[in-house]
Specification:
Blueprint: E1 3-9, H1 13-24, E2 31-38, E3 43-50, H2 53-59, E4 67-73, E5 88-90, E6 93-101, H3 104-111, H4 122-133, H5 138-147, E7 151-159, E8 166-171, E9 176-180, E10 183-187, E11 199-202, E12 207-211, E13 216-220, E14 230-232, H6 248-254, H7 256-264, E15 268-269, E16 272-273, H8 283-286, E17 290-295, H9 297-314, E18 318-322, H10 323-326, E19 337-343, H11 349-360, E20 364-369, H12 375-379, E21 382-385, H13 398-417, H14 423-434, H15 436-445, H16 447-454, E22 462-467, H17 471-486, E23 489-494, E24 512-516, H18 522-534, E25 539-544, E26 556-558, H19 567-584
Parallel strand pairs: 17-18, 17-19, 19-20, 20-21, 22-23, 22-24, 24-25, 25-26
Antiparallel strand pairs: 1-4, 1-10, 2-3, 2-4, 5-6, 6-7, 7-8, 8-12, 9-10, 9-11, 11-14, 12-13, 15-16
Bound molecules: 5-amino-5-deoxy-1-O-phosphono-D-mannitol.
């Protein structure tokens, strides 16, 4: 969480910093700030404020200078206010920080600086610690300070007496660097600086980058020079605006047929999934006897669909774990365990730490990641990238459906290699999967019908979503979408479980959304719908077209695919439902309150 940026070069820094911060706002939008070196004053001048980058733009209109750092904040330590915004300045040191310093209180006591601090943040204490060690040698001061920190950090640092130069160091939290003839750029995310060069690198952990307008020198903590691994950007950043949609979320929902196709089509060869390009060895699918999926939020819901598919088709037991709980639950791991991590950003710290934990204990690993070269991708033995392209809206949509698409590919691959399905069955499975994009297009074409249905929950305080079998994990995802962007309390329930307590909450004021896509569960689900209707609930039903019957009223007909392939089109319908509720309520759909797109705190 939090976005950081830095630039030094031949152009005015302000515009570059603010533009980058605007892109990074999805990492946090509680406050924003920049510090730019001002030659007339011989110091780095800080301007910062609570609120969005737009507000900062107004406040910085007269800022001049060719070197600066900037920050957009998701509050951890200290409330949302001007003083707690970054950059923080202490003595000669000005810095921006992404991450959390766990021992900041102890450092404050050790330095005796409590009365001198102007904020309640852990980050200001880091500035004070570097300043404490600073005697004219910036690298030495940074290394001495960083050795005392426990926690995670990406830091961009400037010193008043070293004009127009930036230093950077990190542990866990990412820092990306690139360079062109106009200067050097650093940021938390390549999206913020990718327009300046398609060649970039991730700063190695525990090394210090010294950045001037023409150079980047990196040394490790022993003073050895480091040559970072260069990466090539393969996302079309210039093409990543809203494309005429009012919100990124709507644009990203609409992109799904295309990005699902991109994720599956090139990986199906002769009727079989093929991961040779990713260099994923077949042994990863054949040698495991248990699978552990580790992920958070939406990505974890993709894992629940994966569990259903793999257990049913391959007969391999799968557990799905919330990454934040995983290592505290004494998980059973052995060399027959395959860990599958799922992450859009590839930076979610809970998932990353759980992956490292499992690998230390001998598990093999495969990650399903969207952001190329991200930390989880790099820490994993094998990676299959989702080809969703940049996902900017905080609410994840196209990342989810492409993650689920990869689970279909993994399922077919594993089942075929293990002899659970023959060549013909594998080809049939893949041909069903290839029909998913057009089923999604079909839902999208009829989105105005979903918009009309969304009015039925617009003013609700609570909603319930009920379904059985594969529909239940789909509704967990649907419910999360509705909660996070519309602020309506929503609970997904396996329909048969309602009567064991929760049905007490069903009244005429709790609209119920019912999903019916699983043929063998149809009659039971119809009975469950009757049960909530009897308690006064208005029920909005989403039914697979071939299952529509006179037994239950159908509000929206979903396209017809085999049971196991309904998970994607049904969730797309639910994404639209949540989207319309949020936008009709006049909310900031892309930046819901209290959230950030990339969660880099535990
Ligand atoms: O980047 P990740 O996929 O690892 O993020 C995990 C969750 O934070 C994320 O899926 C979150 O639940 C979504 N933004 C919700 O829409």
């Amino acid at each position: 969480m939090c976005g950081i940026i830095g630039y030094t070069g031949y152009s005015e820094a302000r515009g570059i910093l603010l533009k980058g911060l605007k892109t990074l706002e999805y990492r946090g939008y509680d406050s924003a700030g920049i510090a730019v070196y001002h030659p007339d004053f011989n110091e780095n001048l800080v301007t910062k404020c609570e609120g969005r980058v737009e507000k900062l733009m107004e406040k910085t209109s007269d800022v001049k200078g060719v070197c600066g750092i900037g920050h957009t904040r998701w509050a951890t330590h200290g409330g949302v206010c001007d003083a707690n915004s970054h950059p923080h300045k202490f003595g000669a040191v000005t810095l921006v920080h992404n991450g959390i310093i766990e021992n900041y209180a102890a450092i404050t006591n050790q330095l005796g600086i409590a009365s001198k601090l102007r904020s309640q943040t852990d980050s200001e204490v880091v500035a004070a610690l570097i300043d404490y060690y600073y005697d004219g040698d910036p690298r030495k001061a940074i290394i001495s300070a960083v050795k005392e920190l426990s926690g995670t950090f990406g830091l961009a640092i400037m010193f008043d007496d070293i004009p127009n130069e930036i230093f950077a160091v990190r542990n866990v939290s990412p820092i990306i660097c690139c360079q062109n003839e106009d200067g050097v750029y650093i940021a938390s995310d390549i999206m913020a600086i990718g327009e300046y060069s398609e060649d970039y690198f991730v700063l190695p952990e525990f090394s210090v980058a010294h950045i001037t307008k023409d150079s980047i020198d990196i040394v490790d903590f022993n003073g050895n020079e480091i040559k970072p691994d260069m990466l090539k950007l393969d996302w079309d950043i210039k093409n990543s605006g809203k494309k005429g949609y009012p919100f990124y979320m709507e644009k990203e929902i609409m992109e799904q047929p295309e990005v699902i196709t991109k994720t599956i089509e090139t990986r199906i060869k002769d009727g079989k999934p093929d991961f040779t390009e990713e260099k994923v060895d077949d042994s990863i699918f054949t040698e495991c006897d248990n699978i552990t999926v580790i992920a958070c939020g939406t990505a974890m819901h993709a894992g629940l669909i994966g569990k259903h598919l793999i257990e049913k088709t391959c007969g391999v037991p799968v557990t799905v774990n919330m990454a934040s709980e995983y290592m505290y639950n004494e998980p059973i791991i052995n060399d027959k365990t395959l860990v599958i991590c799922v992450s859009q950003s590839g930076e979610t710290i809970d998932t990353l730490e759980a992956l490292k934990y499992a690998r230390r204990r001998g598990a093999r690993s495969l990650s399903i990641v969207n952001v190329k070269g991200s930390t989880i991708a790099r820490e994993s033995e094998n990676v299959i990238y989702t080809n969703a392209g940049p996902e900017i809206a905080v609410a994840s949509t196209k990342a989810y459906t492409t993650q689920v698409s990869v689970f279909y590919l993994i399922t077919a691959k594993m089942a075929y290699l293990r002899g659970k399905i023959n060549e013909e069955e594998c080809a049939h499975f893949c041909s069903q999967l290839l029909q998913v994009p057009s089923a999604v297009s079909n839902v999208l074409e009829r989105r105005t019908d979903i918009h009309k249905l969304s009015k039925g929950i617009l003013t609700a305080e609570h909603t319930f979503m009920i379904g059985r079998g594969l529909d239940y994990p789909s509704l967990l995802e649907a419910s999360l979408k509705l909660k996070e962007i519309s602020y309506i309390h929503s609970e997904a329930f396996a329909s048969g479980e309602l009567k064991h307590g929760t049905i007490a909450l069903i009244t005429d004021a709790t609209p119920v959304i019912a999903l019916l896509t699983q043929e063998k569960l149809m009659s039971k689900q119809v009975s469950n719908i009757r049960e909530v209707q009897s308690r006064g609930a208005q029920v909005i039903t989403f039914i697979r077209s071939s299952l529509v019957s006179k037994d239950v009223n159908c509000s929206f007909e979903l396209p017809d695919l085999d049971d196991d392939f309904m998970a994607i089109p049904s969730v797309v319908a639910m994404q639209l439902l949540a989207y319309y509720v949020s936008s009709d309520k006049g909310l900031d759909v892309d930046k819901p309150r209290n959230l950030a797109k990339v969660v880099t705190v535990e």
